[in-house]
Specification:
By secondary structure, the protein is an alpha/beta fold. 40% of the residues lie in helices and 14% in strands. One of its GO terms (molecular function) is ATP binding. It is found in: Cytoplasm. Belongs to the NLRP family.
């Protein structure tokens, strides 16, 4: 029973006096007095910016309840209605009290306006108890001169105020704001990894691993995030992580640890969220951002700001959600650094050091195209979420008793899909909430059936938080409508008017929504509401699309899209619909049909129609040619549907070669891909290049039998990555080719791989190219060769090894019993004469050699000659490459002489002055070639050829040298001694037209020569044995044409000379008409224009026959007819004229 004083105070309280409902209010006070903690939590939810610890609180519990109700009531009608709904929904309210509460205050009819207390009035933001907020605004007015001592005193008081405010903010609050308080909260530090090699970490490859078994309250080298080596200028760190990895949680964790004195290097810490800064439409100065939007000093804001400027190296500003910025920021700005600007521009100035030079800036963002205003020198840290030990530690913290802990961990270990989902911290919490409900009374292994997908985890979470035996369909759909409307308009923060009071009460009761103070400008504050996580908003939006009768199939299908993670430059920010298609796909699972039927209050056939529309949309997407990011997203969606037919169709639609280039991939991404590949029949090649990869990513590929080729090329792959890969390799039974190139693995990572490779006897190719491996690592790799009977290629190029190690490597290779044919490529290894002697001795004892490549070493004349002389005994059937070894001219001749005796060699490379000669001996006809490229040899150089002629004529190319007319003439004399050729290329040798005419004499001395192709414009000169003579792109004067005919008259023929793309003179038709009498062997003259003409010569043995003349399109006029006819009359056997 309430005493008389309390009763009198209750009858006179402002609420009962204004409402005239003394009895109802008294009942409400008596009800809430039984659970003061619940009331305090609700007041804190609806009034997040109000100081509830002021000293004016009454010591009497009943009076405290009345005071708290009065505070809620003064916030306005909407807040009061939402509170009354929470009372009726969450507390055990008798029916005779619930009906009048809702009828009187639940619909706004009984709420009179107070003229002295408007809805717009808002309390001050969080302040230290007893501190008073000044009302003046801190603009950009000039700072008055301050006494240094007074300035320091003001600054000291402000810094203490900052710390006290942060302590109050996180007092009795977990780092997961807005989550249900009924469940224990634990912070487990996620995996962090620097993306730069210069990261100041002592741990392996820059990964912050820490000790997951550390006591709660200790953290994992968070201080290292700010241990950059830069001593001046901006210190900027960007923390990248996908949705749900814990970026916002880490930002608040940093703020909390600073408040507790654990980040002692910083005097002040400011935390801003871009989702809130987006609500500010006007321009701000930096003092306004710090003081009006965050926390104002008690006095002297100008002096305090001056102190912050002078001590900027002790200031940390954290900006959470850089990817959520509404408006883009230009990388170039013309305004002054202290001029008012948008919040993003102020962020840019802080990053570039034009504001608070020397301060520390940290931003969090999802991966994607970051704003152009971010400096390129910013350090990047990747957040990878939880690994196995962290998942187990989180589960053990979540469940209070040991039997529940052990049961939950055992359930996760047996459910691989659920285990992989728990790599994302946000999903790990959702899974724990579901297990909290499912474990009691259920048999082991039930989670595999009830929690197979991310979507069904969210469904079970909603059922867990809802009253048992009751599905609040109307409230769920109402929350879904709010969520979808927000996503479509880019809104993640809602005001009280955006959400109906019953829906708000439902969201608050289940811990699905959180509240906080929102500053919309200097001096303007209000309470904002948001879903506890963006993914939760997307889930409820998907629920609305699937269950609302107002959404038809076409509208539903339009939301099933795949967004590339390569964000276009034209986009200001990443979208808000990352998970919406995945949730839609998950709700399309047959397992969700009963739940959706209850939610929509429709039969399952109606739900099945909508689910079929989603599946059909995904099937259409699977038929398209998709980029790597979209393939990964499609795999996530298809896996959520639990439709084997769709999974098989998607798997078969993937190309044989699947590249993934330059986008971030997590363990969950590869797990989704592996799940789909399990439905594929054909083998697939996976190529990952330039992708930031979670260190334990390869573990997701365990048991994937469809991967035939697997290649990773990224400097971000280190020893932890190699260790994870070594655990998966033995389970991939179809893997034939493995590549790990361009990484930064060391001896530790190689040791893990060496232990795994003997368990992969099916491997045919292994590449550890460009890993800077040292001697010990290379020898360690080579030791496994006897265990790999099918291995055809081992590539260790661009390693940092000595010559002795290389020779040890070749010795192991040649003595390996499983090696039947060997290719030896020791390029640019600084081998000398002694090394090649040892190598020759090894190769003589080894298997057949397909190729020996010693290019780019220091063999010089002696070493090259030794190798060339040994070539016949080594039985090299493919290529011997001795190019770029410092050969002299005399050495080249000796080497060519030595190699000419090798009967098995198909191809030989040698060079002089860094220019290469390629000799190919008797391969397939289309490959028979002797090529000499750009090596200005003297005219006296000749080739020694084998005594027996090759099976098929070779081709010789001397293009791009400096033979000139003299060299061409000398070559014409030597050609008969070379035997038959397929072709001779003399292009780009500076030959004149006269020199080309002299080459036509070769038609009479070289039986194989049938075709000369000459172009003056491109300096093309080619003699071939297949066809006709061709002169192109040159000017032929009458004298030149006559000389050409005289030369060709001596050739045995038959010949066809084509003059194409020429510049013939106007008198050329008359000259060509006279050719019949000057050259009796000319059988036909075909002049189509002054640019194209053809001359046909009969053979010297052929008897004379009829001649033919064609002069068309060559500009003949009436004056040319008489001389043309006179010249043609000299031809006695002219049979045709056109």
């Amino acid at each position: 029973m309430m005493n008389q004083e309390a009763r009198a105070g209750l009858l006179m309280d402002p609420i009962s006096l204004q409402l005239g409902t003394e009895n109802l209010c008294g009942c409400l006070v008596r009800l809430l007095s039984k659970d003061p903690e619940w009331l305090s939590a609700k007041v804190k939810f609806f009034l997040p910016n109000m100081d509830l610890g002021s000293g004016d609180q009454s010591p009497d519990p009943t009076q405290r309840v009345i005071q708290q109700l009065n505070k809620l009531h003064t916030q306005g009608q909407t807040t009061w209605q939402e509170f009354i709904h929470c009372v009726c929904m969450e507390l055990d309210v008798p029916l005779e009290l619930e009906v009048p509460l809702l009828s009187t205050w639940g619909h706004g009819d009984g709420f009179p306006r107070q003229p002295e207390v408007g809805e717009e009035s808002q309390p001050d933001s969080q302040l230290h108890p007893g501190l008073k907020r000044p009302h003046q605004s801190c603009g950009s007015s000039p700072r008055p001169k301050q006494c240094k001592k007074h300035q320091q005193e003001l600054a000291k008081r402000y810094l203490q105020l900052l710390r006290t405010s942060a302590q109050q903010r996180y007092a009795d609050r977990t780092p997961w704001p807005g989550q249900p308080l009924a469940f224990p909260q634990a912070y487990i530090p996620p995996i962090l990894q620097w993306s730069r090699a210069s990261a100041p970490f002592n741990t392996q490859e820059g990964a912050i691993t820490g000790d997951p078994k550390a006591e709660d309250g200790t953290d994992v080298n968070i201080q290292d995030l700010f241990s950059t080596k830069a001593n001046r200028g901006p210190r900027v760190t960007v923390l990248l992580g996908k949705a749900g990895m814990g970026k916002t949680t880490l930002a608040h964790r940093l703020c909390q640890k600073w408040a507790d004195g654990q980040l002692d290097r910083f005097q002040a810490l400011f935390l801003f969220e871009f989702r809130q800064l987006n609500l500010i439409t006007g321009f701000l100065t930096l003092p306004q951002l710090l003081f009006d939007l965050y926390l104002r000093p008690e006095a002297g804001p100008e002096a305090v700001f001056q102190y912050l400027e002078e001590n900027a190296n002790g200031i940390l500003l954290i900006f959470d959600g850089l990817d959520e910025v509404f408006h883009p920021c230009s990388s170039k700005e013309t305004a002054g650094p202290e001029d008012p600007a948008s919040a993003l521009t102020l962020f840019s100035r802080l990053c570039r050091g034009t504001l608070l030079p020397g301060c520390w800036v940290m931003a969090t963002s999802r991966p994607g195209k970051l704003p152009a205003c971010l400096p390129t020198e910013a350090a990047t840290v990747h957040m990878w979420g939880f690994d196995g030990p962290r998942v187990e530690e989180y589960v053990s913290r979540f469940f209070s008793d040991q039997p529940s802990q052990e049961a939950a961990v055992a359930e996760l270990r047996t459910n691989r899909r659920l285990w992989s989902m728990c790599a994302v911290p946000a999903l790990c919490r959702v899974a724990c909430l579901c297990l909290y409900r499912l474990l009691p009374g259920s048999s082991p292994g039930q989670s595999a059936a009830l929690l197979p997908t991310m979507t069904q985890n969210y469904v079970q979470m909603v059922l867990t938080l809802s009253p048992r035996g009751f599905l609040p369909a109307e409230s769920l759909l109402g929350l879904g409508e709010v969520a979808l409307r927000g996503l479509e308009t880019g809104k993640v923060i809602f005001s009280a008017g955006d959400i109906p009071p019953p829906v708000m009460a439902f969201g608050a009761a289940l811990g699905l929504m959180t509240s906080f103070c929102v500053c919309t400008g200097p001096g303007h504050q209000e309470t904002g509401y948001a879903f506890t996580h963006l993914s939760l908003q997307e889930f409820f939006a998907a629920l609305h699309l699937m269950a609302s009768p107002q959404v038809d199939k076409d509208t539903l299908s339009q939301h099933v899209t795949l967004t590339s993670r390569w964000v276009q430059r034209t986009k200001a920010r990443l979208g808000l619909l990352d998970h919406l298609p995945i949730f839609l796909a998950g709700l399309a699972s047959c397992a969700c049909r009963p739940f959706l039927s209850l939610l929509a209050q429709q039969d399952e056939a109606w739900v099945g129609t909508k689910q079929a529309a989603v599946v059909q949309a995904l099937r259409k997407l699977a038929t398209r040619r998709l980029t790597g990011p979209k393939v990964v997203e499609l795999c996530h969606c298809v896996g959520e549907t639990q439709a084997p037919e769709l999974a098989g169709f998607t798997a078969q639609s993937l190309p044989h070669q699947m590249p993934f280039h330059n986008f971030l991939l997590t363990y969950a991404d590869l797990a989704a891909l592996t799940n789909i590949l399990g439905h594929r029949d054909a083998p697939i090649h996976l190529d990952f290049e330039g992708c930031p990869l979670e260190p334990r990513c390869p573990e997701a590929l365990a048991g994937c039998g469809q991967v035939e080729n697997l290649s990773f090329k990224s400097r971000k792959c280190g020893d932890a990555f190699a260790e994870a890969l070594s655990r998966s390799l033995p389970t991939m039974g179809s893997l034939k080719k493995l590549g790990l190139a361009g990484s930064k693995i060391t001896a530790q990572g190689i040791s893990h791989l060496v232990q795994a490779l003997p368990l992969c006897p099916q491997l045919e190719e292994i590449s550890f190219r460009d890993n800077q491996l040292k001697d010990w690592e290379v020898l360690n790799v080579v030791e496994v060769l006897p265990c790999l009977p099918r291995l055809r290629k081992l590539e260790l190029s661009l390693s940092n090894v000595s010559a002795s190690t290389l020779l040890s490597l070749t010795n192991v290779a040649v003595t390996c019993p499983t090696v039947r044919m060997l290719q030896v490529r020791l390029q640019k290894c600084q081998l000398g004469v002694h090394d090649v002697e040892v190598l020759i001795a090894q190769l003589r004892e080894g298997p057949h050699l397909d190729e020996v490549d010693l290019s780019g070493n220091r063999l010089e004349d002696e070493g090259c000659q030794l190798m060339a002389e040994a070539a016949p005994q080594l039985h090299i059937t493919g290529k011997l490459d001795l190019s770029s070894n410092g050969l002299s001219l005399a050495g080249v001749c000796r080497v060519l002489s030595a190699v000419s005796t090798c009967r098995t060699l198909a191809e030989f490379h040698v060079s002089l002055l860094h220019k290469t000669v390629v000799l190919k001996f008797a391969p397939e006809p289309e490959e028979q070639e002797v090529t000499q490229k750009r090596a200005a040899f003297p005219d006296s150089l000749t080739f020694q050829t084998p005594s027996d002629p090759p099976l098929c004529p070779p081709r010789i190319s001397l293009s791009g040298n400096a033979l000139g007319d003299k060299g061409a003439a000398l070559l014409a004399q030597l050609l008969p001694g070379l035997g038959a050729l397929q072709s001779l290329n003399l292009s780009e040798n500076g030959l004149s037209l006269d020199a080309v005419f002299s080459l036509t004499q070769c038609f009479s001395t070289l039986p194989w020569l049938l075709h000369l192709d000459f172009s003056s414009e491109s300096q093309r000169v080619i003699l071939r044995g297949d066809g006709r003579d061709s002169l192109r792109e040159c000017q032929l004067e009458p004298l030149s044409l006559s000389r050409l005919c005289e030369t060709l008259e001596k050739c045995p023929g038959p010949l066809e000379v084509k003059l194409t793309q020429m510049e013939l003179s106007p008198r050329s038709p008359l000259l060509l008409a006279d050719i019949f009498s000057l050259c009796p062997r000319v059988q036909k003259v075909d002049l189509r224009s002054l640019h194209h003409a053809t001359l046909h010569f009969r053979s010297s043995e052929e008897q004379e026959g009829g001649c033919c003349g064609r002069f068309t399109g060559c500009g003949l006029s009436q004056e040319h007819v008489e001389p043309l006819c006179w010249l043609l009359s000299k031809c006695e056997d002219l049979s045709q004229l056109e």
